[in-house]
# Entry
Amino acid sequence: MEKVSRAQIMGKGLAKVFNPVELFGAIFKMGWKRVCYLGLLLAIQIGSFFLMFDHGSVSLHPDTSAIGWIGLVAGITSILSVVIVANGDVTNYFWGILNNISYIYVSMVSHLYGEVYLNLYFFILQFIGIYQWTAQSLRANKEKDDDEIVTVKELHFKGWLLLTVLVALGWVVFGIFLKHVPFMSSVLDPHPWIDSLSVVVQVFAQALMVMRYGASQWLLWIIANCTELLLWTLNFNPIMLALWIANLINSLYGYYTWTKKLPKEE
# Structure
C-alpha cells in the first residue's frame, strides 16, 4: 500500500466529515436504543426553545431572537456530537464544529469569555481530531487490525493528586485573568470564577479522554456539566440549561460505559 501524505489524510477526513450521506448514515446505523436515547436528549433541547420564563412564570413561547435560534443550534449540534462520538464515528466533528461556532456567539453575547476561549480551543481540536481519527483508520485498514475495542486506563493516587493540583492552579490563574481582562469588549466576565472552573476542568477532561482515561475524565465531565448548569442558571438561558442537562445525562452514561463495559488496560 502506497504511503499517504498528511494532506491526503486530511482531505479524506474532511471529505467524510462534510459528506451529508455519511453524516446522516452515522445516526441511522446506531442501534434503536441509541437512536431513542438521542431522540430523548433532542426532545429536551428543542422543548426548552418553546419555554418562556418571566418573573417566576412559565409559558409556551419560543425565543425567536438571534441568540434564541443560535442557542438552539448550539444545543442540537452539541447533543449530536457527544452521542455520535460515543459510537466512534468521525462525523461527530462536523457537529462539533457547528457547536463551537454557535456556542461562541451565545457566550460572547452573554460576556462569558471563558466559554469563548474554551470553544476556540475546541474548534482547533476538531480539525486535529479529524486528522488523527482518519490517520488511525487508514493504519487499521492497512494492518487489517481487528482489535478495535478501546482499552481504558485509570489514574492512581499520585495521578489524582497531580490532577487536583493542576486543576486548582489553572482555576486560580484563569479566574484572575477573566476577572481583569475582557474579550473584544469593555464588559468583564460577570462570573469569572465559575466560568474559569468550568473551562479548566473541561480542558483536562478532554486531555484525559485523548489518553483513554476512564473514570477520571468522566468525573471531570460530570463536574464541568454541573458547573455549566450553575453558570447558565446565574446567566439565565433555558436553552443552554437544557443543553447541559443533556450533556450531564450523557456524561453519566459515559462514566458507566467506560468503567463497567470497556476492558481495562493491563
